[in-house]
Design a protein that fits this description.
CATH class: Alpha Beta
Protein name: NAD(P)-dependent dehydrogenase, short-chain alcohol dehydrogenase family
Number of domains: 1
Strand content: 15-25%
Order of helices and strands: EHEEHEHEHHHEEHHEHEHH
Structural class: alpha/beta
Family: Belongs to the short-chain dehydrogenases/reductases (SDR) family.
GO molecular function: oxidoreductase activity
Helix content: 40-55%
Keywords: Oxidoreductase
Strand order of the largest sheet: 3-2-1-4-5-6-9
Pfam families: adh_short_C2, Epimerase
Largest sheet: 7 strands, parallel
CATH architecture: 3-Layer(aba) Sandwich
CATH superfamily: NAD(P)-binding Rossmann-like Domain
Bound molecules: nicotinamide-adenine-dinucleotide
Oligomer: single chain
CATH topology: Rossmann fold
Number of helices: 11
Mean pLDDT: 96
Length: 275
């Protein structure tokens, strides 16, 4: 390989779930520019050129299976980017559907050895290790329907935070079994990032003081997408099981104590089970 070939996607076919807008769209554009053939799955229409577009509502398991049947493989990378901020479908859209899709693509052999999965978690998923027994119990559910039923039966788990903690725990736990099949799995944990979802939920205020103190702008979708593209590229061949903070150092300087202002809210996040 040349020095930069490991970062590229020439000859690779990539699936982006949630690629109509925001970070998913930015990831699709990034890997396309790096040489990939791109398949986008979303409930919304895609307004830029892709090789295959599949319409799906992730809250409907039958529709999801039909959408997976339409994916033309082999696939070398999956970006699981679809997500919502809350409501009764938050666990299905943010985690249960993505797990189902990943597991079917592995079982079907569509995701080939050497491939990789990158999910989008959040700073809201911090502290997942404190709740591992509950998360392991949830992750023991074998399929979409049983995971959905588990959430219905456990108060306080149908939340954005639990969906992101579930991603972090899943990514950590699956690194071993997936690597026996030659597949890696990682996630990014973005800080507030300027997308339609963040604007609709006023998330950009979360690190506003840190942004002012560091004279930096809010993160853009393409800045998260570049990290996702790296994690799913051969350049990250040694990286698996990681949920990587992409927040310009807001969380770490808060934990480390140099950014005192951030400490209370980060400590709150890290000790909460969910909200
Ligand atoms: N923007 C932020 O500040 C921020 C921070 C941390 C994590 N995240 C996470 O990043 C991910 C992407 O969010 P974004 O900010 O790019 O938002 P976005 O709204 O721009 O993108 C989300 C995409 O998911 C799709 N989608 C939503 N529900 C769907 C469903 N039921 N079926 C199929 N597709 C569906 C939407 O159509 C959209 O294309 C989400 O998981 C979000 O939780 C966002």
């Amino acid at each position: 390989m040349t020095e930069t070939a490991a970062f590229r996607y020439d000859g690779k076919r990539v699936l982006v779930v949630g690629g109509a807008t925001g970070m998913g769209a930015a990831a699709a554009r990034a890997v396309s520019a790096l040489g990939a053939e791109v398949v986008v799955m979303d409930r919304a229409p895609v307004d830029y050129p892709v090789d295959q577009q599949i319409t799906v509502d992730l809250t409907d398991p039958g529709a999801l299976d039909a959408a997976i049947d339409q994916v033309t493989g082999p696939l070398h990378a999956v970006f699981s980017a679809a997500g919502i901020a809350g409501g009764p479908a938050v666990m299905r859209v943010n985690f249960i559907a993505h797990r189902h899709l990943a597991e079917r693509l592995v079982q079907d052999g569509t995701l080939v050895p050497g491939s990789a999965i990158c999910m989008i978690s959040s700073v809201a998923g911090l502290g997942w290790q404190n709740h591992l027994p509950l998360l392991v119990d949830f992750l023991a559910t074998p399929d979409y329907a049983s995971a959905d039923a588990w959430v219905d039966g456990h108060d306080g788990t149908c939340t954005y935070m639990f969906s992101k903690q579930a991603i972090n725990a899943y990514v950590a736990r699956e690194s071993y079994p997936l690597l026996t099949k030659g597949i890696r799995i990682n996630a990014v944990c973005p800080g507030p990032t300027d997308t339609p979802l963040a604007r609709a939920n006023t998330w950009l205020g979360f690190d506003e003081q840190y942004r002012k103190a560091t004279a930096t702008a809010p993160l853009r979708a393409d800045e998260i997408a570049d990290v996702m593209a790296f994690l799913n590229s051969s350049a990250a061949a040694g990286v698996s099981g990681v949920s990587l903070l992409v927040d310009s150092g807001h969380v770490m300087s808060s934990i480390g104590g140099s950014w005192e202002t951030g400490r209370p809210v980060i400590e709150f996040l890290m000790t909460q089970r969910s909200v």
